C-alpha cells in the first residue's frame, strides 16, 4: 500500500449520546479516601489529568473503583465506563484488557488523533496495579 | 458579504477535490499550513519533468537550468523580504532556521550571559534555548504577557539589558494573534549589542515584512505557511551576522576546500546549505512569492484583517465563548483562538472536523503559554487568501451545534 491510500477518518461518531451522557454525568467520579491503592497519570499534550482509586475485596477482586480528574469528553466518558466495567473483575482480568475492549465499551474505534484520550483511564489503572504489585 | 469581492478558491486545487467528493469543506487552519495554489504545483512539476538535475554540479543543460532557477528563487525571496540574495539561506522551515541560529550562537555564550524570549513562543523558539541554557549554563529570561494578551513591554524593558546577548522573539503569535513590537525591541537590544532573531512564521505571507526595516539580525519563516510547498523555508540573516556564524551542518556544497587535515567553508549563504537542497521546494516557494506579490501583500493583509474582525464579532455572539487574544480593534494577526466553557478544545475541534470545519484544537505547540493562561488548550481558526465569510458562518453554526449537543 502506498502512503496515499490511507483514509484515517472512517471512524463512526465517537460522540454518541451514551458517551456524552457519561461525560456530562460521570459515574463513580469521586476521590476515595480509604483506597487500597491509587494511581495518577497526565496526558500533557491534552492537559488531561486522571486519578484512579481502587478498593480491593476478596481474591484480588475490585470491590470499588472511582476516578477524579479533568479532560476531554472521551477521556472522561471512558473513565466513567471503565469504573463500571472493571468493578468485580480481578486484577489479572483488568491487566488483560486491551484497546479492543475500550473500543467495545465506546461502541466505536477511535482514530490516532484521540487514541491517547480513550486509553488514559485504562493506562492509569494498569499503572496503579503494576505499582501495587511491586 | 458585500465587502467581499474576490473569491480565489479556484486557484487552489484542494477546493475542487473536496467539492468533487461532495463533502462540506471549510478550511480554517492556515496558521498550521496554508493551501497550495496551482501555480506552485505547476512550477515544481515543470522542474521534475523538464530540468530534473542537481544544482551547482553538472555542466549540462538541465543542471545549469536547475542551478539558475534555484538561485533565481533565492533572489526572488530576497527581494520579497527586502534582503540581499546572499542573506537568504534555504532550510526546511522555521524550526530548522531557528535551530540553525541557536546551535551556532548558543555555544558562544558564557554562564553570565542572558537569552531573552517571550512566554508566547512556539516550541520551535522555546525548546532550543531552554535546552542550550541547560547545556551551556547561560540564563534564559522570559518576557511575560499582559491581561490583554500583549507582550508586557514594561517588563521587556527591564529584562533586556547589558547581559542580554540574544533576543529571540515571535513576530506574530500563532496562538493569540498578537503582533509584537519587534522593531522597537530589536533597537533596544541592539543598544546592548545583542543579536536579534525574529520568528516570522506567522507574519511572512500575511502582512508586508521588511527585513531591513525590522532591524533584526535573523528572521525565520516556513514556505508551507506562505502558500508554498512543505519542507522548505528560509533563514534570512544580515550578511555580517551570517559571516560570523559557524556552519550548522557539514557536508557537500558547504565547503570551498577539504584536505585530510582541514576544511575551508564556502561563502555565505552556501556554507549553511550542506548537501543537496530542496530544489523543487525552493522553486515552488518562489512561485508562491510570485502568487502573493501578484495579489499584493497589502491586499492579503486586508483580506485577513476583515475576516479576523468578522470571526471575532461572530464568535463573540455565542454564549460561553471567550476569545483568547487581542480584540479586532488592535493590529493583530489572523489566528483567532477561543475557548468554549466546559468543552475541551479537542472535543470541539474533532466534532467541527466531522462537519467539514477544519480548525485546530490543543496547545498549538505553545505549552508554556497554555500553562501561563491556565488553559488545556484553545480552538483556533485561522485564515488565508482563499478563506471566505461563509467559512466563518459554518464555524459559528457548528460551534453552536456542539454547544447544544454537550449542553446538560
Ligand atoms: C510562530 C511559529 N513559529 C514556528 C513554527 C514552526 O514552523 P515549522 O513547523 O514550519 O518549522 C510555527 C508553526 O506552527 C509557528 O506558528
Structural notes for this entry:
The complex is a heterodimer of chains A (134) and B (408). By secondary structure, chain A is of the alpha+beta class. Chain A has helices spanning 17-24, 73-86, 91-95, 99-106, 115-133; strands spanning 37-43, 48-56, 62-70. Chain A has a single domain, classed as Sufe protein. Chain: A. Chain A is built from five helices and three strands, in the order H-E-E-E-H-H-H-H. Chain A has a three-stranded antiparallel sheet, with helices on one face. In chain A, helix 1 packs across helix 2 and helix 2 (73-86) crosses helix 5. The model of chain A has no long low-confidence stretch (mean pLDDT 90). The mean pLDDT of chain B is 96. The longest helix of chain B is centred in the N-terminal third of the chain and has 21 residues, at 61-81. Chain B starts with 12 loop residues before the first helix and ends with a helix. Chain B is an alpha/beta fold and 408 residues long. Chain B folds into two domains: 2-30 and 296-406, Aspartate Aminotransferase, domain 1; 42-293, Aspartate Aminotransferase, domain 2 (3-Layer(aba) Sandwich), CATH 3.40.640. In chain B, the strands form four sheets. Chain B has a seven-stranded mixed sheet, with helices on both faces. Chain B has a four-stranded antiparallel sheet with strand order 11-12-15-14, with helices on one face. The chains are: A alpha+beta (134), B alpha/beta (408). Chain A binds chain B through residues 9, 13-15, 20, 23-25, 44-48, 70-74, 113-114, 117, and chain B through 343-344, 346-347, 350-351, 353-354, 362-363, 367, 370, 375-377, 405-406, 408. The complex binds pyridoxal-5'-phosphate. The site of pyridoxal-5'-phosphate (PLP) has 12 residues of chain B, from helix 4.
Amino acid at each position: 500500500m502506498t502512503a496515499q491510500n490511507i483514509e484515517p477518518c472512517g471512524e463512526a461518531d465517537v460522540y454518541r449520546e451514551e458517551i456524552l451522557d457519561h461525560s456530562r454525568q460521570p459515574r463513580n467520579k469521586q476521590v476515595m479516601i480509604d483506597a487500597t491503592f491509587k494511581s495518577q497519570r497526565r496526558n500533557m499534550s491534552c492537559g488531561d489529568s486522571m486519578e484512579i482509586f481502587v478498593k480491593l475485596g476478596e481474591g484480588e477482586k475490585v470491590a470499588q473503583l472511582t476516578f477524579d480528574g479533568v479532560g476531554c469528553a472521551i477521556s472522561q466518558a471512558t473513565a466513567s465506563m471503565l469504573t463500571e466495567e472493571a468493578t468485580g473483575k480481578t486484577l489479572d482480568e483488568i491487566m488483560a484488557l486491551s484497546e479492543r475492549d475500550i473500543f467495545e465499551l465506546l461502541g466505536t474505534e477511535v482514530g490516532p488523533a484521540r487514541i491517547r484520550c480513550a486509553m488514559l483511564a485504562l493506562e492509569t489503572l494498569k499503572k496503579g496495579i503494576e505499582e501495587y504489585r511491586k | 458579504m458585500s465587502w467581499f469581492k474576490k473569491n480565489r478558491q479556484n486557484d487552489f486545487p484542494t477546493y475542487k477535490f473536496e467539492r468533487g467528493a461532495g463533502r462540506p469543506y471549510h478550511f480554517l487552519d492556515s496558521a498550521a499550513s496554508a493551501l497550495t495554489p496551482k501555480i506552485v504545483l505547476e512550477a515544481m512539476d515543470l522542474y521534475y519533468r523538464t530540468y530534473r538535475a542537481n544544482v551547482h554540479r553538472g555542466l549540462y543543460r538541465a543542471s545549469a537550468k536547475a542551478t539558475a532557477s534555484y538561485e533565481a528563487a533565492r533572489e526572488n525571496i530576497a527581494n520579497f523580504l527586502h534582503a540581499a540574495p546572499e542573506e537568504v539561506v534555504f532550510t526546511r522551515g522555521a524550526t530548522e532556521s531557528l535551530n540553525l541560529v541557536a546551535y551556532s550562537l548558543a555555544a558562544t555564550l558564557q554562564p553570565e550571559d542572558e537569552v531573552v524570549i517571550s512566554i508566547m513562543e512556539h516550541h520551535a523558539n522555546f525548546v532550543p534555548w531552554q535546552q542550550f541554557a541547560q547545556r551551556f549554563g547561560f540564563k534564559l529570561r522570559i518576557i511575560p504577557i499582559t491581561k490583554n494578551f500583549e507582550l508586557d513591554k514594561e517588563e521587556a524593558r527591564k529584562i533586556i539589558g547589558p547581559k542580554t546577548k540574544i533576543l529571540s522573539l515571535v513576530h506574530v503569535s500563532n496562538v493569540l494573534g498578537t503582533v509584537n513590537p519587534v522593531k522597537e525591541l530589536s533597537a533596544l537590544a541592539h543598544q546592548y549589542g545583542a543579536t536579534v532573531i525574529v520568528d516570522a512564521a506567522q507574519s511572512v505571507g500575511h502582512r508586508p515584512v521588511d527585513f531591513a526595516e525590522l532591524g533584526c539580525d535573523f528572521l525565520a519563516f516556513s514556505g508551507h505557511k506562505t502558500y508554498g510547498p512543505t519542507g522548505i523555508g528560509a533563514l534570512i540573516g544580515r550578511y555580517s551576522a551570517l559571516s560570523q556564524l559557524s556552519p550548522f551542518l557539514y557536508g557537500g556544497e558547504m565547503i570551498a576546500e577539504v584536505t585530510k587535515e582541514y576544511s575551508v567553508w564556502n561563502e555565505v549563504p552556501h556554507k549553511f546549505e550542506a548537501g543537496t537542497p530542496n530544489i523543487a521546494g525552493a522553486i515552488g516557494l518562489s512561485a508562491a512569492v510570485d502568487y502573493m506579490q501578484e495579489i499584493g501583500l497589502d491586499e492579503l493583509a486586508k483580506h485577513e484583517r476583515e475576516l479576523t474582525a468578522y470571526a471575532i464579532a461572530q464568535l463573540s455572539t455565542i454564549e460561553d465563548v471567550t476569545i483568547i487574544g487581542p480584540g479586532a480593534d488592535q493590529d493583530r494577526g489572523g489566528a483567532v483562538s477561543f475557548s468554549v466553557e466546559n468543552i475541551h478544545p479537542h472535543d470541539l475541534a474533532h466534532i467541527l472536523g466531522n462537519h467539514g470545519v477544519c480548525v485546530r484544537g490543543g496547545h498549538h505547540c505553545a505549552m508554556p503559554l497554555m500553562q501561563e493562561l491556565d488553559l488545556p488548550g484553545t480552538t483556533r481558526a485561522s485564515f488565508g487568501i482563499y478563506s471566505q465569510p461563509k467559512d466563518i458562518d459554518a464555524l459559528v453554526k457548528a460551534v453552536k451545534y456542539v454547544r447544544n449537543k454537550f449542553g446538560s
